[in-house]
């Protein structure tokens, strides 16, 4: 892919989310992040900015199914391992779009430059995660798109498309935080099955996810302070509004708390109906 001429961070975010090819999406994320951290991009050029797309660009494959129709995932066994890796790649591809959409959609909100520094770093890391998983799949003779995937992750983005605090609550503090709960057992199972390569990839993802949740907690609290709202009760209200179903234990309370997401935020939502 040739380098695109990107005039602002918001335009780069729109291009990333709009691009159908996962490989081009990743390349654009790297390019935009590099330009941003070298201070070669403005945040926006208001007269030129186009709206963010309602849906991200996607390749022709994978086929999108309802979650109940998805193949079973597992560390052990060839088919289960492939299903797990493919599912994780799909999650990370969605994470690229969700993060860059957060950057590009809410630029009219007055925010410090450090807000964008944090989320561009997250967007860069999500692109890295997808690349690692895609390369691992290729080493096994497969690629993203070979198996079906589900479309549930983008529903959270659609629900919070006009609500920045709702987006911060749902994406990093519900969806990414769930990764802190489920990834350590997957790492342990991978090592026990002799699959050190998958385990090491999961370790990188887990380490980075802690930072992503920490950024979410930091900026959610920032927005609550700005609007004079109590963080825990506001979080619970937004989750009830935008997230379908209960928050399910077990929780990795230690990792969540280390990232600034203390039990008072999420434990009252366990019995949510």
Question: How far apart are the first and last residues' alpha carbons, in Å?
Answer: 47 Å
Count of alpha/pi helices: 10
Q: Indicate the overall shape.
A: globular
Looking across the biggest beta sheet, what order are the strands in? 1-2
How would you concisely characterize the structure shown here?
By secondary structure, the protein is an all-alpha fold. It has ten helices and two strands; from the N terminus they run H-H-E-H-H-E-H-H-H-H-H-H. The protein has helices at 9-18, 22-37, 78-105, 113-139, 152-159, 164-192, 196-227, 231-242, 253-258, 263-266; strands at 64-65, 149-150.
Walk me through this protein's architecture.
It is a single chain. This protein is mainly alpha-helical and 273 residues long. 63% of the residues lie in helices and 1% in strands. A two-stranded parallel ribbon has the order 1-2.
